[in-house]
């Protein structure tokens, strides 16, 4: 008696977060039939818990190349699938001379207009408030994009599911398999190539691959706040702590002075691994964050002191006495000190494609093109 498969396609994608959906998009663009499975009834992982910030301009080297490819594909996907996207760049606020020096050095190294220096008045005009400590200046990072993370992956999945040769199976967990047959919680799927895009849960499926590549979890404290009166913010907003995280800033000579300044002036921010930033959603609410903790298995308990530090900082930048919190959540992404992404072939016919730094929204479409180029 022959095996009966629950689905058959050229490619099986495991995981319907942005990495999986970007790979599904790349597969159909190559004329391949695709099955996408996800263990949940809809995506609720890192791809819906982030800022929706495609942080293109502040990448460097290979990440910048991937981000620039991804930028075009985001805009195309937004138009086809009908989800919000905004080409408004990112506003970087400089509140100390060291921060200003980093921004100026990056601007000088880029083509004119890509990192556009702004006066304090121009920065304030975006925020419509008095920041504390006072703003010295800043820059607009031209090529950054925004999407609404709560909408984008869901609408992209809906659009992909309507394309010929594409099938989604939700609440279907991948359990392994190789050589063209994948085992799932609902039965076997026949696909010449399986591409596993399970993000930080890589270790559940391939513990040795995760350990060999030092892939662990990064946990971030996030919140949604009500917009202070009159705030109509188009760009994403980054601050001095962001300059120490995103490579194009962090690689400037001026960044080492900023790192020393931050360590002595703001140990509270350094202690929680802060990247103080925010984005305003189309409904006006503002996504704010974040902190960073690293562990193989993430402690689920979120410290209120961490949230308070972030909220005080953001209230200061927005020039309000306090923020009105609507929701809080923990986001988790895969992280590795080795490399910002991991494409591997742990078994014949099985590729893993994992973003191992906080840039999955920025590079996934570019990463997907790279994965297919490597096959
Ligand atoms: C708080 C936070 C803020 C961030 N901010 C930004 C940002 O502003 N810009 C940026 O570029 N990046 C940002 N990131 C990073 C970005 O969100 C991630 O890199 C990206 O979403 C990872 O996508 P993914 O598809 O790999 O993971 P996920 O979205 O977590 O998707 C993985 C999917 O795999 C499924 N799955 C897991 N195991 C199985 C299995 N065995 N069988 C079937 N399905 C399975 C899960 O159900 C899930 O839907 C942020 C991340 C966080 C957490």
Question: Concise description?
Answer:
The chain has helices at residues 18-29, 46-49, 61-81, 97-109, 120-127, 149-161, 202-205, 207-212, 240-243, 247-250, 254-265, 267-271, 304-318, 360-374; strands at residues 7-14, 34-37, 53-54, 85-86, 90-94, 115-119, 137-141, 145-147, 166-169, 174-178, 181-184, 187-196, 215-225, 236-238, 277-280, 286-289, 293-295, 325-336, 341-347, 350-355. The chain has 375 residues and is an alpha+beta fold. The strands form three sheets. Strands 5, 6, 7, 13, 14, 15, 16, 17 and 18 form a nine-stranded mixed beta sheet that branches. Strands 1, 2, 9, 10, 11, 12, 19 and 20 form an eight-stranded mixed beta sheet that branches.
Radius of gyration: 21 Å
Could you state the oligomeric state of the chains shown? Answer: single chain
Query: Given this structure, which CATH class of the largest domain is correct?
Result: Alpha Beta
CATH superfamily of the largest domain: D-Amino Acid Oxidase, subunit A, domain 2
Distance between the termini: 33 Å
Tally of strands: 20
The major pleated sheet works out as: 9 strands, mixed
With helices defined by DSSP (H or I, 4 residues minimum), what is the helix count?
14
The helicity comes to: 25-40%
What do we call the CATH topology of the largest domain?
D-Amino Acid Oxidase, Chain A, domain 2
Strand content: 25-35%
Q: Which stretches are low in confidence, meaning pLDDT under 50 for 5 or more residues running?
A: none
